[in-house]
Amino acid sequence: MTATPPDPAAAFKQQAAIKAASLVQDGMAVGLGTGSTAKFVVAELGRRVREEGLHIRAIPTSSVTEKQAREEGIPLTTFGAQPELDIAIDGADEIEPRTLNLIKGLGGALLWEKIVASAAKQFVVVADASKYVDHLGAKCPLPVEVIPFGWENVARQLGKLGAHVTPRRNRDASFYLTDEKNLIMDCVFGPMMEPEKLGRAILEIVGVVEHGLFLHMACQTITAGPEGIRTLTPQQD
User: Which keywords belong to this entry (predicted)?
Assistant: First the structure.
């Protein structure tokens, strides 16, 4: 069994991840998320494959997750062979508790993550309890993936929508590149009152590939904190 991390936040993430991984049943096709919480899901599924004989097929949401899945012994597949997934489990950077709308992409994998989530019958989000916010944008920027050519103009157009835009860079000041060799613009909008409207406006900008707003996609969230594990589903208006 995976050792409990010494960091309390990491321990909460692991608790939520193990709970979410228990939803995976024999024979399922599974989307594997990317990030600090999703890696615990991959580790737990790998343990179940090795120790329990769990039979699954998985599609990873990044090259990092693909590497971990192979190391864990999880069989991988492609959308060519598996066009629909039974379940996808991934983390989130912010979660609105009422709607389960999300911001994702601080890990740089938002495009593959959204493709995988949209192909899943169930999209389950795991996180520690600190990720809950009243409105998206309250704590973190919105990542927007753009093609490299003309990124400066795309950044200006994002600025006209009200964002403070910062191109994501590596520690050596080079541009961060996604698995598709695109750039990420980290956009600070502040609390979003109309995320659907904003999402549509962003996608109308030529050069934008995708944004990190995951709206009306999650069927449940599983979070852990000092009060224990909490499971939420979207509230009906």
Answer: Isomerase
Which listed residue (96, 113, 145, 210) is catalytic?
113
34 marked ligand binding residue: yes
Q: Would you say 35 is a known binding-site residue?
A: yes
Q: Which tokens is 132 given?
A: 């809950």
Annotation-wise, does 92 bind a ligand? yes
What would the pLDDT profile of 183-224 be if each residue is shown by its tens digit? 999 999 999 999 999 999 999 999 999 999 999 999 999 999
114: left (phi over 0), alpha (psi -120 to 50) or beta: alpha
Cβ neighbours around 170 below 10 Å, total: 9
Q: What are the structural domains, with CATH classification, of the chain?
A: 8-133+215-227 (3.40.50.1360), 142-211 (3.30.70.260)
Known catalytic residue at 71: no
Burial class of residue 98, CB neighbours in 10 A (0-12, 13-18, 19+): exposed
